[in-house]
Amino acid sequence: FADLLGKSVSEIMTKLIALGVFATINQEIDFDAASMVASDYGIEIEKEEEKEEVEVGLEQAEDRPEDLKERPPVITVMGHVDHGKTSLLDAIRKTHVTAKEAGGITQHIGASEVEVRGKKIVFLDTPGHEAFTSMRARGASVTDIAILVVAADDGVMPQTIEALSHAKAANVPIIVAMNKIDKPGINPDRVRQELADHGLLVEEWGGETINVPVSAHTGEGLDSLLEMILLVAEMQELKANPNRLASGTVIEAKLDKGRGPVATILVQNGTLKVGDPIVAGSAYGRVRAMVSDKGKNIKKAGPSTAVEILGLSDAPEAGDLFNAVKEDKIARQIGEKRKAKFREENLHATAKVTLEDLFKQIQEGSVKDLNIIVKADVQGSVEAVRQSMVKLSNEEVKVKVIHGGVGTITESDILLASASNAIIIGFNVRPSSAVSSLAERENVDLRTYRIIYEAIADVEAAMKGMLEPEY
Ligand code: GDP
């Protein structure tokens, strides 16, 4: 700072001491102190734009509308277990990838491309809303349309409803594939009714949701399903700019014994080329080779293309975002900085929900569900608490009792709470000291009460930010 002002260090130190700042020669001083000293010399200083250092080298200009081109839709298949998600994906791949294209071997890279009327559709190979939501939890959004598979003979089941909520939460349009219509005695209207009961109204009944009867076994309806996907995609006007450095999301990644780190990525904007320096999560490198879902080596991949890439320093994680950058140096710098940041963050146990912080977390939007585990000495108390707690739900938070049982609080309760970000409430039961210290290590909020009313009052107060602090 003294150098910049063209003054001696001791002179600047004297000035600082006059301001009450006792700085050593290599100590950082804050902006206010620096600007006061500078103003003594008639110099005005400006604050440097504070940028997330990690992102330097990643920023790119916004796409101009005229540079945007239509891109293929990316699809996730969801639904209840055994309703035919995997069979449907297989059937679509078999019937819509020509033998010539496939060259006999389809490569399982995590996504597959099919062509309908000269237009491409990309399917993510891992079905289910869990995969979909875990990606979302990492900040990635890859799915343009969700196919909700409902077996016509079984109807709407718990995971159908879950999938529905997950897709809705992500604001992704839903197409219902009513599967197994080859089975005798099925009643599609019953399924439509059940969907309506859960807030999904099909077109035939005046709603907006397209539903297509299909059979993964006979292939019936698959063509119309694909047509409908293209139709919905057209309405969405999916676009990207192929003429820029590529960016997108890691779909899956692994460490291959022979080939080293291998990642399947979905290019979402720009075009990725062999030789491009790239950073994916904290992994970095240069694209050494790209393999398509048909097992072909390719040189470049445009928007909505899934490719397996080689050349990364290590395996990134599914859901990590990737960027092609101008120079190797930039990729390395960003990757190394992110690694350091992750190491630092891993030192601290992940923050869990606590009654003390609940209100703040609700305000920040980081808590939408308040998960509770209830343990009590008698079943009657468990039920009484369960019912009262659920009633505390409001627009901002939903209170859910994810587990309730009779008996003392156990290590397994703590682990369940830790994994599900839940708090534990005990009535007339006490944890052993081993269990208490596990709760502490796992950052789990564990509270014991003798009177049910007090527990309810505490949770209610915490939700409103009016909980008396514990001393
Ligand atoms: P997933 O758990 O949703 O992936 O379901 P699967 O694809 O594994 O299918 C579950 C079962 O349903 C398997 O035994 C399939 O053979 C069967 N299945 C899937 N699709 C159809 C269909 O269209 N018709 C009939 N009859 N059975 C089907």
TrEMBL record:
**Which positions in this protein are listed as binding GTP?**
79-86, 125-129, 179-182
Q: Which GO terms describe its cellular component?
A: cytosol
Transit peptide among the record's keywords?
no
Where the record annotates domain Tr-type G, the positions are 70-239
Q: Which GO terms describe its molecular function?
A: GTP binding; GTPase activity; translation initiation factor activity
Q: Where in the cell is it found?
A: Cytoplasm
> Is Nucleotide-binding set as a keyword in this record?
yes
G-domain: annotated span: 73-221
List the keywords (alphabetical): Cytoplasm, GTP-binding, Initiation factor, Nucleotide-binding, Protein biosynthesis
Biological function: One of the essential components for the initiation of protein synthesis. Protects formylmethionyl-tRNA from spontaneous hydrolysis and promotes its binding to the 30S ribosomal subunits. Also involved in the hydrolysis of GTP during the formation of the 70S ribosomal complex.
Family membership: Belongs to the TRAFAC class translation factor GTPase superfamily. Classic translation factor GTPase family. IF-2 subfamily.
Under what name is this protein listed?
Translation initiation factor IF-2
Provenance organism: Geosporobacter ferrireducens
